């Protein structure tokens, strides 16, 4: 008995690992396409639902889709209204797994193909082309999934009459039994973090006669509540909209379970009629007490009944609630209010990755990219403070902007650290070679952006030393510094455009190089002009030194900026 239980747990682990591996392989093979597909949402409710359905059917994980949606809401790529529609579609998409398990895992023993599929997967893994390596993960994951399911079926312990009677006694409390098994399905899904695994266990318990069809139906309803926990965990440290999206998922499923419980018997009768219409016995009338013969009409009816119930539940729930999406958005917005914060403080905080890494590493890259663009925009704001510090006419005004530049340097240090931590959390074995190169470039880029913050503080220190020694720049020198700032600002603009573009080209790099050349030429011109004035005794030497140091620091900023585009 102990060995059988350990084998059952191991088979469950194989099932879960196979599903994760299959999902990861698909995401790596189609990561960019999935990312673009999800980001291209419109105001059309049908398209939102269809998108959620399609992505979940492909990657075989509603949890992955909802976590992805929460991350995209957190990143500002999806509105809350769009996210609710996608989540509704994801709930329908997850029913594909139930049908796949029913059709292939029970009615046809696909596990006999598992070892040959692993051989195919191994051959694909030896290919040089990255796409084939991703496909090998998909094939091997698929094989492990059904091999795990077959082992789970084979390792279910043979319970004696007393043990079976103990389990079946929980089915005799009428509606209370429904609630007991609903809670059991919810808790099991919370523990396993996979509604698909719980669904597989439900089908097995039904097929061996441990529970009747109504109790299996109650477990399926519980699974729909339990599966919402993953998105809520991902959103727990996200921004308010991310938490609202996760709450909307919970509200959607809880509402569905409530109406399904109220209409429990009529709903099950409807499922039974549909199964009879397909030519199989009504699962409500089958005697499950002694188990049912695998492959028989009764077995098929029971398996199809559970899958049909799961599908009908989510389709009906979506049809009911899709028209009330604005109301759901209002409800979750009222439940999770945004705290009023200082606007300037809000601008210099992370906006896109505050919910931590996504559960799908390939799709986390959009979050990281958007956060880096945001980092560059924050850095560009510091250039404005440099200009105001240069133009300050009294010590009090100068001190205000000097403190801002010091603060911005600290902010750039923190943002660099937090983005690097986010990138470092992505498991290297789960991301493609192309994405690994992107990550390497991102480390270089955030380092250069942090250096731009250092330059701002360095200029504030030069100006402080100038003020301590009672020196000032001439009006002409201030005008020339303004010209230098304009060139650096232009380089910033090109850099940010390059960071935001989807397809970086040599033409984009050429624009960035041209900006850097202009900054270098201006630095050389201004420095030589000032040195000539010193030689001709037309300027105050200490003031000229501070002026040349400021110009040199702007040239260094130009170097950091061009380094970003070169990293791209």
Share of residues in helices: over 70%
Structural class: mainly alpha
Distance between the termini: 59 Å
Please, how many helices?
23
The proportion of strand residues reads under 5%
> What would the average pLDDT be, to the nearest integer?
79
Write down the secondary-structure element order: HHHHHHHHHHHHHHHHHHHHHHH
Oligomer: single chain
Note the main sheet. Answer: none
Number of strands: 0
Morphology: elongated
- Count of individual domains: 2
Features:
568 residues; mainly alpha; Methane Monooxygenase Hydroxylase, Chain G, domain 1; 2 domains; 23 helices
In short:
The protein has 568 residues and is mainly α. It has helices at residues 2-39, 45-59, 62-74, 80-93, 95-107, 114-125, 130-154, 161-169, 175-192, 195-207, 213-226, 229-235, 240-262, 264-277, 297-321, 325-335, 343-347, 364-391, 395-424, 433-468, 475-500, 506-535, 541-567.
């Amino acid at each position: 008995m102990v060995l059988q239980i350990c084998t059952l747990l191991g088979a469950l682990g194989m099932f879960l690992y196979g599903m994760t591996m299959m999902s990861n392989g698909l995401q790596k093979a189609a990561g960019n396409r999935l990312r673009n597909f999800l980001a291209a949402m419109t105001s059309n409710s049908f398209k939102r639902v269809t998108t959620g359905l399609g992505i979940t059917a492909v990657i075989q994980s509603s949890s992955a889709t909802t976590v992805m949606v929460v991350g995209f809401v957190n990143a500002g790529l999806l509105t809350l209204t769009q996210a609710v529609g996608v989540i509704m579609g994801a709930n329908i998409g997850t029913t594909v797994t139930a049908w796949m398990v029913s059709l292939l895992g029970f009615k046809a023993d696909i596990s006999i193909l598992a070892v040959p599929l692993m051989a195919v997967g191994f051959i694909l893994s030896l290919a040089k082309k990255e796409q084939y390596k991703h496909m090998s993960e998909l094939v091997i994951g698929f094989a492990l999934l059904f091999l795990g399911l077959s082992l789970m079926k084979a390792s279910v312990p043979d319970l004696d009459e007393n043990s079976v009677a103990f389990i079946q006694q929980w089915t005799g409390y009428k509606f209370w039994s429904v609630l007991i098994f609903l809670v059991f399905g919810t808790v099991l899904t919370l523990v396993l973090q996979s509604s698909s695994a719980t669904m597989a266990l439900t089908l097995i318990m039904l097929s061996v006669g441990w529970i009747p069809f109504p109790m299996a139906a109650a477990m399926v309803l519980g699974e729909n509540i339990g599966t919402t926990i993953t998105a809520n965990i991902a959103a727990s440290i996200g921004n308010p909209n991310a938490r609202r999206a996760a709450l909307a998922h919970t509200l959607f499923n809880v509402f569905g379970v409530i109406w399904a419980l109220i209409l429990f018997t009529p709903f099950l009768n409807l499922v039974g009629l549909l199964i009879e219409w397909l030519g199989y016995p009504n699962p409500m009338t089958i005697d499950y007490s002694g188990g049912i013969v695998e492959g028989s009409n009764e077995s098929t009816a029971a398996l199809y009944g559970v899958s049909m119930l799961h599908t009908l539940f989510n389709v009906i729930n979506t049809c009911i609630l899709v028209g009330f999406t604005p109301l759901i958005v209002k409800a979750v917005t009222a439940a999770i209010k945004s705290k009023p914060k200082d606007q300037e403080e809000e601008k210099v905080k992370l906006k896109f990755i505050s919910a931590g890494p996504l559960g799908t590493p390939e799709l986390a890259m959009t979050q990281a990219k958007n956060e880096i663009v945001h980092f560059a925009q924050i850095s560009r704001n510091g250039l404005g403070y440099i200009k105001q510090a240069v133009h300050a006419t009294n010590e009090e005004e100068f001190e205000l902007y000097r403190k801002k530049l010091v603060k911005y340097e600290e902010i750039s240090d923190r943002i660099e650290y937090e983005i690097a931590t986010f990138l470092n959390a992505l498991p290297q074995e789960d991301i493609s070679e192309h994405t690994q190169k992107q990550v390497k470039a991102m480390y270089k880029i955030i380092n250069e952006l942090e250096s731009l913050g250092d330059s701002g503080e360095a200029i504030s220190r030069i100006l402080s030393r100038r003020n301590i020694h009672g020196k000032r720049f001439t009006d002409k020198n201030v005008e020339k510094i303004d010209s230098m700032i304009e060139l650096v600002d232009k380089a910033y603009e090109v850099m940010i455009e390059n960071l935001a573009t989807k397809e970086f080209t040599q033409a984009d790099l050429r624009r960035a190089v041209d900006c850097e050349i202009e900054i270098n030429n201006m630095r050389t011109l201004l420095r030589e002009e000032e040195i000539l004035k010193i030689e001709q005794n037309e300027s105050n030497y200490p003031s000229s030194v501070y002026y040349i140091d400021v110009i040199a620091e702007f040239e260094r900023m130009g170097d950091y900026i061009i380094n970003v585009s070169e990293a791209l």
